[in-house]
Protein: Tetratricopeptide repeat protein
Organism: Thalassobacterium maritimum
Amino acid sequence: MKRFSTLYLVSSLLTLSLSHAAVPFQLTDSSPGSAEFRERFLGNYGMLSELEPSVSVQDKPLFVRVEPFLRNNPQQAIQVLESALNNESSPAFRFLLGSLYYQTSRYGQAEQNLRMAVKAFPDFRRAYRTLGLIYVQNNRYPEAITAWLKVISLGGGDAQSYGLLGYAYLTEGKYQSALSAYQMARMFKPDSVDFRRGEAQSLLETGQYRQAAALFEELIAEQPTVPDTWLLQANTFLQLERYDEAIANLEVVHSMGAGSRDSRFLLGNLYLRAENYRPALQAYQAGLAQPGELNVTSALKPLDYLIGRGLIAESRVYLQDLQQRLPATLTPEQQDQLALAEAQIERRSDDSAAAMAVLKPLVERNPLQGEALLLIAELELEAEHYEEAVFYLQRAQSLPEHKVDALVALGRLEVARDDFAAALKHLRAAQEIEARTGVARYIRSIEQAL
């Protein structure tokens, strides 16, 4: 097992996976379906903009026929327009029909008509705006970015356009662009929860941790029961090395009944770093007890850390809990990791025979398991079974990723046998492959002794 060195921080948990399949957060006051923006949309049916296609005298009777149905009976309005439009109709009516389809959540037909409108009138700003709404609501964020940039370039820069542009950028992982868009959006609507949260996440992703932490603090003060905000602020605290505050945030999240297996493992890591071993074990156990499918690779990491810290009693407790929750089928690598962990626990409990009983079948099953070969060699060396130790170390030496460790172990073995010349040969060979400060000191001490 590898020694515990750096704290395992599950940053993917806290910074959110931003992809086409996942969004950074659920929109609230800037959602296309929010009351404010819905009212704005319903006021979008007028034909008064001098920047957009006009309606001829011949077309006005159609608008008069359809206008009474626009707000309260969109389906009837659609039927009137569908029966009257042809390829020569004004793009204003294509926009109107596309908007009605959007209002009734028939996004494919809405997009088709809106695209016809902008093809006939390339600067049709309101048509691009509605296309932008469609793309956001259907998670088509690259297309949403293009649409909102077009709206803004045509003079439509406002809270909605900059806010949803920022959201699309954030979802696509374009954090600096998202930050710029959200800062513009807040000029129009500074108190928006969505805009502040989007800006805070963008600050976090661009490494501006203090500003992000302060903005998350503002959001928490206003809405203290939103777990994600506490989690995101915890991530800023991790980046700022304010570990106690990160622990406090995670405890708040878990007290709400929120969080996940990974957040509990992260809490355990933080307690372990602070040498608070009992709450660390409790957090790890709570992580194992979380419902849902167990990720065995992630669940093995706390075991590695506990053993690396020499917490053998805690390691044994965690291993027992883990074994009760393991799936029926494990990969060969996972089987090896479990066996190595068990052998380490037995060895550090001064039960070499029990450790050997685990390790021997392991190397028979997997002759190339270098960590097991090295551990068996250490046990043989401790028992002064030098020839057996050499046998296993030579096997480990043939594995490139374990060659240096095997050579160093051979050097220690030869020192135990008082063959200092042979020891120096092995240690110098190890240093030629990978220079290590500790090995260099060991070589100097042998040379001085000679």
